[in-house]
Write a structure and sequence with these properties.
Two copies of one chain form a homodimer. Chain A is an alpha/beta fold. Chain A has helices at 17-29, 171-179, 218-228, 243-251, 272-279, 312-330, 382-386; strands at residues 35-39, 52-53, 63-64, 68-71, 85-93, 107-111, 123-126, 130-133, 136-139, 149-150, 161-163, 184-188, 192-198, 202-203, 214-215, 232-239, 257-261, 280-285, 289-290, 296-300, 303-308, 340-346, 350-351, 357-365, 369-372, 389-393, 399-400, 405-410. Helix content of chain A is 18%, strand content 31%.
Chain lengths: 412, 412
């Protein structure tokens, strides 16, 4: 074995979580930002890259805010149930189909919500305060000037910015963009993520397994988490634990992030770390955290490479701490946890160690108290499905006593 | 006009929001629950319909939790940096490739994380505490029995329920299901939602519009909101404001929910309410709320029909209050708001009226204070994109004074 080969000799030093995040931030800051223009109805959840400006006024004309009758406001002064005023119905204004005359005194135009206000009219009486009889209508309320009229440009003025860059586009944002007639938007490209799953012992769910084989679970974790964080799964590659197979999957170009599950540690068949160093760099390998200390962060070509431990709980933790964070950042999202946080009281202590970050799954009751799950067993995957979230014990802490008030980060 | 025709005569009475929810709950309780079995990797976010049971133990064998050496625990007693013990390396156990001998005294087997513990061994010494030299290894720490061994079934026992029905499947839930070898799950069917957009004045974004036309925005709102709430958009139908066109789109069978945007009120061209009464029932039409009072809830055949006001802000509000709630319920989700709630202080008063629910968009600063937006104008669509969320003023309240501490429901 060459001198620099850490296989079967253990991690010499471990980076801190903060050092790993620091390296990620520097690396990701150098990545060229790419945008693309897409039809608005394909832009839900995407990060807006350029401001959306309106070229029109909304509304584009004075319009009725109610179904009723367009009138001259002054003429309704004093009208009431006991003293209705009577007007002659001279026409009808429908949405998209204006009445083209000019309203004269003692006249009214039947009007629908959204329809143009006729020339000469300056208020709308809602239908509830009217009684039509053949060509006449009685009005039983007083309306002031511009009552129930949506004025030209009152919603959006021509030239205004309607949505600012950085916004993760919500359904109502897309609706506003549609309402100004804009059919496309420029958004941040979604990072393309290649998943490489290694492990000769792995069998796919639904297949027959031999005694010492295990079912492969990490691809199912990553296939769900990557799109949630704004990435696109470029491909999932199940490869043999051979240098050649891993190298081949690693070196295909045109991808933003490569996640390698398994073979990330210092075992005899852990080829991935050596391959990354050979073709790029692996400045972070071994992180002072539990679980997922055998995590690695590096770079091959322009692609960020994250070595995820094969153990599914460690894989989840390393994904959440590093890979998911990087994917969100590349997608133009916040690096914050994509989960809701609540303040809870610990019902049982959590034991940790100074110098190490702990990712402790917890069951949360009524958003008030939290019970740590499977504190000892990093490999207890079922704890993640019993868990409602997790508590992070920082590296400055030896643990959290029972009764501590802590922040729980809630999955899902 | 027939006597029961409410067009151009106003809503006689309005239902309360609670009455509308009550009718929805009764109607939806009668809908037959349908489930389907899908591959696990297509089940993210779906509501689990049947418990997932494990037919296997996980792990299926005693396995190493570390890279290192499998040993007889008792033999390491007293071992330290100053007093290492020396063992003969007699083989190697790799994941999926066991060492088939039986460990004898003074022997060790090189072992990797996840590999089977050889017969005779009962502990693992992590590689960090060892020094290999040709066929021998020095061990410089003491390990107790079963140290660094994951015991058979310690994660999941055969026969155990790993995920309970009702769970909205998260990536880690799917990973757990994969880890027990299960390739499919039975989940609640997603409700199929037909969208019918009416309005002769509407033009699609990107097209040229004439002066009194407006750009169509509600389909963009609904296309984003329906999948978020667990529904599938069956089709979007842009139809003319004619009785025939709306009737045709309404009567195509095989859909769970029909949303009709526009023509929901009491205007002369509001055909949809009459058509729903003709072909089914429309028990709720007109709701005491602002905006979106011209909302209707009814049924045609087995399908729930929601009449959404054409005004985009009213459409958003009616969707959030009624349609989205129903879609979530049909998808096996909670009827609660799908949004995060925060407690905030109002920086300005909100005026409402007793007997009416108000849906007031607010801008939220630092999750601490909220400023009501566009209180007067229900039709101000741009307020929804400036808004971070909304505050609900209940029907018992005349409004909320400046400085009130209220719950804001945050979009997105």
């Amino acid at each position: 074995m060459p001198a620099h080969d850490i296989r079967m000799s253990g991690f010499r030093t471990r980076s801190t979580v903060e050092e790993a995040w620091g390296w990620l931030d520097v690396m990701l800051a150098k990545v060229e930002i790419r945008n693309e223009t897409v039809p608005i109805n394909q832009a839900y959840g995407r990060s807006l890259a350029e401001p959306v400006l309106s070229e029109i006024d909304v509304p584009g004309f004075d319009r009725s805010a109610m179904d009723g009758y367009a009138v001259i406001a002054d003429e309704t002064t004093g009208a009431s149930d006991y003293q209705p005023i009577r007007l002659r119905i001279v026409g009808e204004s429908m949405p998209g189909k204006a009445w083209n005359g000019t309203l004269q005194p003692k006249q009214a135009v039947r009007i629908m919500t959204g329809a143009p206000i006729p020339d000469g009219a300056n208020a709308v009486v809602p239908v509830e305060y009217t009684q039509a009889e053949r060509d006449d209508v009685s009005v039983s309320t007083t309306v002031g000037p511009f009552k129930h009229i949506g004025r030209t440009g009152e919603d959006i003025q021509s030239g205004a910015v309607v949505v600012e860059p950085g916004r993760l586009l919500r359904p109502q944002d897309i609706a506003v963009i549609a309402s100004i007639g804009t059919p496309t938007v420029t958004v941040r490209c979604q990072p393309k993520v290649r998943v490489i799953i290694t492990g000769n012992e792995l069998v796919k769910p639904g297949q027959k397994k031999r005694p010492h084989q295990i079912y492969e679970a990490n691809s199912s974790l990553l296939l769900g988490a990557i799109p949630r964080d704004g990435g696109i799964v470029e491909s999932i590659n199940f490869v043999e634990d051979t240098e050649r197979a891993i190298e081949d999957a690693l070196l295909i170009p045109d991808v933003d992030v490569i996640l390698i599950s398994g073979g990330s540690s210092v075992g005899a068949e852990d080829f991935a770390p050596l391959l990354i160093e050979r073709h790029g760099e692996l400045p972070i390998h071994g992180i002072a955290m539990r679980p997922s200390s055998p995590t690695g962060l590096g770079q091959v070509g322009a692609a960020l490479v994250v070595l995820l431990p094969g153990n599914p709980v460690s894989c989840l933790c390393a994904y959440d701490f590093f890979a998911g964070r990087a994917i969100r950042q590349l997608a133009g999202r916040s690096t914050d946890w994509p989960f809701r946080q609540v303040t809870v009281t610990l019902e049982k202590k959590i034991v940790s160690a100074i110098g190490r970050v702990d990712y402790c799954r917890v069951a949360v009751k009524n958003e008030k108290s939290a019970i740590p799950l499977a504190i000892s067993g990093a490999s207890i995957l079922s704890s993640t499905t019993r868990a409602d979230g997790f508590v992070i014990v920082t590296s400055e802490s030896e643990g959290l006593p029972e009764g501590s008030v802590v922040t729980a980060i809630l999955y899902g």
